[in-house]
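Student: I would love a firmer grasp of how sequence relates to backbone shape in proteins. I am handing you a single protein, as its sequence and its fold in token form. I am told such tokens are a discrete way to write the fold. I hope you can help me see how the letters and the tokens relate. Take your time, and here it is.
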Amino acid sequence: MAVITEIEDLKRLYKRRVPKMFYDYAESGSWTEQTFRDNSSDFDLIRLRQRIARDMAGRSTTSQMVGQDVSMPVALAPVGLTGMQSADGEIKAARAAERFGVPYTLSTMSICSIEDVAEHTQKPFWFQVYTLKDDDFMKRLFARAKDAGCSTLVITVDLQIMGQRHKDIKNGLSAPPKLTPSSIVNMMTKVPWGLEMLGTKRRSFGNIVGHAKGVSDPGSLASWTAEAFDPSLNWERIKQFRSWWDGPVILKGILDADDAKEAANVGADAIVVSNHGGRQLDGALSSIRMLPQIIDAVGDKIEVHLDSGIRSGQDVLKALAMGAKGTMIGRAYVYGLGAMGQAGVTQALEVIHKELELSMALCGERNVADLSRDNLLIPKGFQGEWE
């Protein structure tokens, strides 16, 4: 049995266990992958300020995200195709998050449907939607999320046009996976994964197939997807989506201070500073590098979260100390899910929680609410000198 002490341990197990097309889907960015790499490496530029001789008894990582009590300010981000990383993956991840006391966000492009996840969990989860053209489908999707008891809606606003991810194209990524000579050879080496997938009925996009007009089987999904996203998206359209949901709304994919101000103006309860994990505009700055100016612009008006690049509890600490009220992890929990199923997601959360709690203490803080830029050593020019 492998000893898990860091997220990288889970990543190594994940790579061995999951077919290449699904590993590459998670572990890749668009075009040259510059932004994908920067998301993580820019965290390393920020150092922590050690403080000693302070009372560190009674430490707490508990907090709130959009009014919800959380055991630590970390939510599981929406990740498409999660149910292809491990059979019934969305259900496993949601259960792990529920038991750990952090929010789980179900992607519209999940394998398990909203109803599947609701049936197998006891507490409300968050639901993520894209900005699609089809009002009828969108309204029914919102209604399904409400009927399933979802507490918060996360609207992804940075995917109206999809960035190109070379590996997905070369691998012929699909759900169920396309059976080509190379994919068959690779999947033959992933026997435990294959046996699990044979044991589930959930192998396509549960929120789409049978729900979207004209999509009755996986074969008709590709053409629907190509036409579904709305390239004419604007702030009025986002405001309209906001009006369709009477609970908390989070806008995910904000990477500019002016856009953050617009998000506050349309009535969002929170934003996620995010570049979609480096999967959209390659060459954009990392989320952590953009966070300070967005906090300065709207931090007193709207709750600000951050995702993209978080691989440790120290990364979470740095984001919180920079001013974020919450964070989201995607790849970090997917590594655990692909490696060990639900237990792996729990392991990922435990690793991040322990790193956050201990690092916080070594910085001289007993409560995450007390973290501030005073706990950080931020290099001069961290935000960049740009003309």
